[in-house]
Design brief:
rod-shaped; 2% helix; 9-stranded antiparallel beta sheet; 35% strand; 3 helices
Length: 589
């Protein structure tokens, strides 16, 4: 080496994984000289501190997390000079590092996508490891809980599987993923993308704030997004009934709509409460049929009924699998605009079902009915859906079309609201043929009812139907004996039971008494000998409306069982002759 000449040499080392300040190298030499004597005695050159290149006057002005990594400004200390030997830049996650999900549907397959950008290369020789945590209530879809398959466009830069850990505390699972970089992520200007699939919980929840950190090459923790947002379904419902008549079998039709697809894997259960007043007894297996909506076939559904007015319906997987709703995989991030599911699974969002309840034997107002629901999957049992009040139909029915038992009755608003039962009203008119004592008296009764009267009716919950009878009372001003009386009627047969002791005639209909139609009953009783004021004749419809009595109305002498007084009325008297000893004819008029 000659004096006063520039010499340059280079050698290669691997920087450490952790950030550090620049080293302060020095250079020295010994045994300098060109003669044997000098060499033997040795002359040393004192050490000299080596100087790094100057930082450009403008410095490195990129100091945000969006920079390429050099954050030095002009005038910074030499130990932080990125051009100085063995200065190692700290590594951080760029703001372009984000995380997202593609399904907010409970129990759906949810693809979590991570976009990764760092300010410096991640060299595989240092075994960089990325750790993400706080995936609230996310579950692994794979058979092994600890192994998570990795996909995405940049999956080749990572191990094919990550380590998935689920830790439960107070009913909440907080899962984490650890992923190793296996190929150099060498370009800090590129965003690398990978994904993995989890199972959403069977409950609505807010998103969890996911943190990511690096080891092997230390990277400070950063918050990158809030996935695992799960939409709890909102349920809406409409309902109507087939008939408002007391004692009638009533077909209730219910439509349920959810703003979020319901998957079989969530075991959805829909509950109606408030259907009070029905005489249908409690049943753990109650027939309910889905007839429309997303499910068009008539399917019997697992359901239960409680006489207090609660129906629980559980559409199982075999029923949901018949849904006509799209199963095309779709991004389902925004509730209210969901189409299909990301997983492509069968799902249902609206369905219509029917059930038959027995109306009570009395009038009642339409009860307030509510719809709610639950979902169950894994650790999540009976996770609630968000319910609402069932809206009843205010349409006015046309009974001439829908109900032959009330062909002339005018429908009214509210008749179709579930378990609304109309009031039982009767209109009557009665008359008799004579008020003369001891005379055979033909009595005519005309009945009109506001609701159909059936030949039998269940009078209370859990009892069998009993025959309907109409008892006409206070006919005691008659001397007719026996236990039956012949009658003329098209709907009550040819005879009626008769109780002479208390003056009761018991009619038994042999066909449905159609609402809004006049029915006549004609029978003959023998009037008693003595005077009888017109009684307040009543009739009772047994098995209907508890013990409600109605009056039979007549007018004056035509009022049944009015018997006139026995009085002589002499108008004139005359004779034929005034002569003594004559035969005299007396005429009384």
């Amino acid at each position: 080496m000659e004096c006063a000449n520039d010499y340059m040499f280079a050698f290669q080392v691997y920087n450490p994984a952790s950030p550090q300040n620049a080293a302060s190298p020095s250079i020295s030499a010994s045994f300098v000289g060109n003669s044997r004597e000098i060499f033997i005695s040795g002359v040393s050159i004192n050490p000299l501190a080596m100087m790094p290149p100057d930082v450009p006057a403008a410095g490195f002005d990129q100091v945000t997390t969006a920079s390429t990594g050099l954050n030095l400004k002009a005038g910074s200390a030499a130990v932080a000079n990125p051009l100085a030997p063995l200065f190692v830049q700290s590594v951080w996650f760029d703001s372009a590092t984000t995380i997202s999900q593609n399904s907010v549907i409970p129990c759906d397959n949810n693809t979590i996508t991570v976009s990764l950008k760092v300010n410096a290369p991640l060299y595989a020789r240092c075994t960089p490891v990325l750790s993400m945590s706080a995936f609230v209530n996310a579950r692994n879809r794979m058979g092994s809980v600890s192994v998570m398959a990795i996909g995405g466009t940049s999956r080749s830069y990572f191990n094919s599987t990550g380590v998935w850990t689920e830790a439960s505390s107070s009913g909440v699972t907080s899962s984490s993923l650890v992923l190793t970089v296996t190929s150099d992520i060498s370009d800090p200007t590129v965003t690398y993308t990978f994904n993995f699939m989890v199972a959403n919980p069977a409950q609505g929840q807010a998103g969890s704030n996911i943190s990511i950190t690096g080891s092997g090459i230390p990277i400070a923790s950063a918050q990158i997004g809030n996935p695992m947002v799960i939409s709890a379904p909102h349920l809406y419902s409409w309902a109507s009934q087939s008939t408002p008549w007391p004692c009638a079998s009533n077909t209730i039709t219910v439509t349920v709509i959810s703003d979020v697809p319901l998957l079989a894997s969530c075991n959805p259960s829909i509950t109606l409460t408030g259907l009070a007043g029905s005489y249908t007894p409690t049943a753990s297996s109650f027939p309910v049929y889905i007839i429309g909506g997303d499910i068009v076939n008539s399917n019997a559904v697992i359901s239960s009924w409680n006489v207090g007015g609660t129906l629980t319906i559980t559409p199982n997987s075999s029923i949901i699998s018949t849904s006509t709703r799209s199963t095309v995989a779709a991004q389902t991030v925004l509730p209210g605009t969901l189409v299909g599911t990301r997983s492509g699974l069968s799902n249902v969002m609206n369905f219509t079902f029917t059930m038959v309840l027995l109306n009570p034997n009395r009038a009642q107002v339409a009860p307030v009915v509510n719809v709610s629901g639950t979902m169950t999957n894994g650790d999540f049992s009976n996770s609630p859906m968000i319910g609402s009040t069932v809206q009843g139909s205010n349409d006015v029915p046309t009974f001439s079309i829908s109900d032959a038992d009330a062909s002339s009755v005018v429908g009214k608003s509210g008749d179709l609201r579930p378990l609304y039962v109309r009031t039982i009203d009767f209109s009557t008119l009665s008359s008799q043929s004579t008020s003369n004592p001891c005379a055979d008296n033909t009595i005519t009764v005309i009945l009109w009812t506001s609701v159909p009267v059936y030949t039998s009716c269940v009078a209370s919950v859990g009892t069998t139907a009993t025959s309907t009878t109409i008892t006409i009372s206070r006919l005691s001003a008659s001397t007719t004996g026996g236990s039956t009386v012949n009658i003329v009627s098209s709907s009550f047969g040819s005879s009626a039971a008769w109780s002479s002791g208390n003056g009761q005639l018991i009619l038994t209909p042999n066909t449905t008494i159609v609402a809004g139609t006049n029915y006549s009953v004609v029978f003959t009783l023998t009037n008693q000998q003595t005077y009888n004021a017109a009684p307040n004749i009543t009739f009772l419809v047994v098995s209907y409306s508890a013990d409600h009595y109605y009056n039979l109305y007549g007018v004056g002498d035509n009022n049944p069982m009015y018997v006139s007084k026995l009085d002589w009325h002499v108008a004139t008297a005359s004779q034929s002759t005034p002569w003594p000893c004559a035969s005299n004819t007396i005429t009384v008029h």
